[in-house]
UniProtKB/TrEMBL annotation, chains A, B, C, D:
Taxonomic lineage from the root: Bacteria, Bacillati, Actinomycetota, Actinomycetes, Pseudonocardiales
InterPro entries reported in the protein's UniProt record: ATP_PFK, ATP_PFK_prok-type, Phosphofructokinase_CS, Phosphofructokinase_dom, Phosphofructokinase_III, PKF_sf
EC category: transferase
Protein name from the UniProt record: Pyrophosphate--fructose 6-phosphate 1-phosphotransferase
Domain of life: Bacteria
Positions that bind substrate: T129, I130, D131, R166, M173, G174, R175, E225, R269, H275, I276, Q277, R278
Site (Important for catalytic activity): K128
EC code(s) of this entry: 2.7.1.90
Catalysed reactions listed for this entry: beta-D-fructose 6-phosphate + diphosphate = beta-D-fructose 1,6-bisphosphate + phosphate + H(+)
Site note Important for catalytic activity and substrate specificity, residues: D108
Length: 346, 346, 346, 346
């Protein structure tokens, strides 16, 4: 065992299945392998800014592996946008004698982690996004669970589509990257998959739908919430406010279902999966990945390798520079999308 | 074995997990116990009207028990609203030498079944509605599956609500009866449950939500799609078209989430489960119930007991008059709703 | 609200999904509707005998609805078989000022409840058995979950049986009653179902298996652990010790798989589901039933109606005498078994 | 499109979720991208030996993506162990004008594929093993599903262990490699994980178990079926015949449960998951992986790149030599096992 240390841990950004599994792994390895003390910060970066701490012991993580959400709470607070935010973090760190921070989060949380490291605070990052759009790692935890849930929904929607000879448009998460749409569409046997990376041609979608209707089967269209039609028709997206100030539930999916109904004369329905994709117990895959990320984040801290993030490469967990990880969004490459096209249409 | 008979079977109305299980049971019992021939009619009452038949053998039902939807297709066609509909049914029956029909469906399908029996055509009904709002039977198949799916969704939404200190409004099916809301709300541990049978008071809902936010937990509100606020605020319902002709996805649930956000100043989100509640593989409970309904429908036909419907009473399958079954909607009684109220609020 | 009371609650006998849901309902209704205090007794009747108590508050039951097991622990301790057991219960009751006890358990636990009531201690029972073999109630909670798990397993085993042209024998729980075998066999589409109530004829089973093998499908045999062959061949049951003192895992299922292999010359495998049938999160059905049982047990206490047990009759929760409930085992009636036989064989 | 070709496809060895997804992808891509005809061979290598063929069209693969098992059947037939086997394959190929074969299977099936390529028959391999013990690929499809099922079982067993203060030994698949045990043990939060790669010390296992019993929680031990105790105690394995000729169900798991009970004086139970781990619908992860393997196998055939196998490397599907793939078993490396040890014991 090395020097007796006190390590802070926090979770930032949107909810994601597997956060608790990372926390548990950090606590088990920190305490059992190194004899460290682990201090939880509440609600993302708000915790170190406002000195909201909560000591975490082995007993506290005993039953959390299987649970969604995060026992630490989360927020989107950014210390660089809060008056004196970084200085207040320094004070919290000093007051609590924190030697290093493990920050679990997405692009924003890790962006802060990078800047704090540049500013002399030792941070190790753990990548988290259900959208799988973080560079530098093969996959992030939460993504497999989101795909699993979306696929189960598609499996259920298929039978209802077929019994009623209806088109079903399933809107899944993915504002900037279509990974969930691509994987759940492949796994669910979708007849069209639409992603933000490729503006879609409504005529072509309708063509696939019509050919599908000629068979005894019904068309399933999986569309990422961030997908947009070519030429940029005015499509409001889920969560945006419409002209009357109402939050819109079901954006492009609902829009597309209406277009299909209008153009084909067939019944068409939209299903917007929404938040069920990011809650609840993680899949076994995500539990293993999140656990290994937590263990290796502790190794990085023990090695004093700050400014890094743990990442999956093949079957290995490696460390990459935070700067590399947050450099650019990882979108669906053309060849992956085209690979899926043999399943389109009839 | 009795007289060699030919029996028609059809499925009408909305999709419902367990339809195929009924069909399979009818075919197995009809063929193995009685030596009958079974003829499937396609797309509900459209089948006998347009002579759309499909013989069904043991092999055809071999792999359908676990599948959602219906291998016969469905429709909402009503022979009493189609020019010469009943006469055309008579012709189909004569041409195919059909001795009796087993009609699987909800209020509309069974209403037709009743009138046809009055008009001299032998029909036995099997009750089907995921909403559980058919009188004369304790439960209908499909309901347990819908509640199961809604409950799984609530389990997932709970963790995301808690990590983000958000209110989550879950809109479930139930236009006229709140059974799915009541049962999934109880099973999911909802903090408020709203049903069509009781116009709700928004102030009281907000009060429950606020008390819940005072704890470390987040409020979950389960609302049936047909629930309405007291005083009748203008709430558009899911599937209705708004002033601009757009089909609305998420009616009262979305409306309520906005009200809660406005009045409490806390984040609030709606999740509209929609069609995933009525597709996919049935639960074990529904497979057993649907199977038993199918077996007993064959018994009713063998006994020449037409104009009846099979029904669940306790653990027994009994026969009731179709007239009784379709007399009135079975809604959630006051005492069942009040039973649930100890779980409301904090 | 009535008189301020202190109510004890305990869980006895084998594990069963839904126990925590009952406890939660008792606590919510006792506290919120009546203002009572609730005291948990640990480990079944061992708790009141040894004065092992644990106060339970609203916060303690906040997150337990979805969890299997029991937060109170369980045991098979019988105060009538412990030196001075009943007197020690009286002392515990006096010391803790307990006004009544709600005892959640199966035949043994409820038998004790009945005798204690006869001996002047106020007890209300809540029926619990995954085997569904308790009289006086249509169903017990835990049963639906066990059937659900067994059915999921059968769904999975079917595909492996078919790919390999193998017979698969699935041994499910049910030492004295075949309810789990009957319902999971119906729901899973079994080709033979064997229950303790009817000694089975191996020749007939083999005949069904052989006819099934003549199709392109593979035979699935669901057998209750307590089923026995006609004539009483020496079949060791799961959990019993063999001649060498080893606990036997897989009794009649394993025996039958070997018989089938020997007699048909085809591959045959046994799967023994064991304890996975009684753990984990309850189904929505069981959560609702367990919750309602808990609420109504509080009503019975409030009414001073001791010596009773809550029971399901149709869709109502009623009270029955504990003497009636424990009078005899509820086994599968002949007509229910014969109903299933049209699914046997090919 | 290239030359009009006829491609044979077969599935060999043990059942594995995802086989149908590969077949579907081969058929879709072969027909839609290349205009090929696809011929299915029945029952592994038995098909080409005995000329058991079955043409497969788009319609045949329409509904198989979600199904476990294989529509082609499987066997362990080895043409090099059958009199004239390879010559008979040549005849079948000539007769059916087959241009190449896509062989989906494990070590044995792919070993044959390699030798046939050496003997001049064009074969491309697709790796399949739920055990994940094939070299040259990061993962094989079926493994994620097996881990998912085992993890769900552990989740359920945990609550029953805790309610009864029992040790629970869960025996999972893995005769030569402990991948399923390692991953499901990590995902299920096991307190001890035992793999074939490291003979285990019973004293140490008992020590972990006893420390765990000192907490309020119960020990879960996950053991691969091929794990063996140090010093080589005589442990019979699942599926082996004992001294009396009976097939043993539950080998090392059952043995270990008895050892733990004897040495600790606490109750201990074994659960043997068996065949449920390899049947039923594949996870979304496995559906995507299997689908991509099928698409890339078609690419390899189109490129005339025989003697290769498709493999997963990171997020890419690559081609590797069959000789490399079957060179040696991929076992759990020491560092992966030791990574898990911080979760052992209390």
């Amino acid at each position: 065992m090395g020097k007796q240390m006190r390590i802070g841990v926090l979770t930032g950004g949107g909810d994601c299945p597997g956060l608790n599994a990372v926390i548990r792994a950090v606590v088990r390895k920190g305490i059992k392998a190194h004899g460290w003390e682990i201090v939880g910060f509440r609600n993302g970066w708000q915790g170190p800014i406002e000195n909201l701490t909560k000591p975490i012991d082995l007993a506290d993580v005993e039953e959390i592996l299987t649970r969604g959400g995060t026992i630490l709470g989360s927020s989107r607070t950014n210390p660089y946008k809060v008056e004196g935010g970084v200085d207040r973090i320094r004070e919290t760190i000093a007051e609590n004698q924190i030697d290093a921070i493990i920050a679990i989060g997405g692009e924003d949380t890790l962006g802060v982690a990078k800047r704090l490291t540049d500013d002399g605070i030792g941070v190790v990052g753990v990548p988290k996004t259900i959208d799988n759009d973080l560079g530098a790692t093969d996959y992030t935890f939460g993504f497999d669970t989101a795909v699993h849930i979306a696929t189960e929904a598609i499996d259920r929607l298929r039978t209802t589509a077929e019994s009623h000879h209806r088109a079903l448009v399933v809107e899944v998460m993915g504002r900037h990257a279509g990974w969930i749409a691509l994987h759940s569409g492949l796994a669910g046997g979708a007849n069209v998959i639409l992603v933000p990376e490729r503006p879609f041609n409504v005529d072509k979608v309708v063509e696939h739908v019509e050919r599908r209707f000629e068979s005894e089967f019904a068309p399933i269209i999986v569309v990422a919430e961030g997908a947009i039609p070519e030429g940029g028709a005015e499509v409001l997206h889920s969560g945006e406010r419409d002209a009357f100030g109402h939050v819109r539930l079901g954006g492009v999916g609902q829009w597309l279902a209406e277009e299909i109904a209008d153009r084909t004369g067939k019944e068409s329905r939209a299903a917007v999966l929404g938040h069920i994709q990011r809650g609840g117990t993680p899949t076994a895959y995500d539990r293993v990945l999140a656990t290994r990320f937590g263990l290796h984040a502790v190794d990085a801290v023990a090695a004093g390798d700050f400014g890094t993030m743990v990442a999956l490469r093949g079957t290995d967990i490696v460390r990459v520079k935070l700067s590399e990880a947050t450099a650019e969004l990882k979108t669906v490459p053309t060849e992956r999308y085209e690979e899926a096209e043999v399943f389109f249409g009839a």
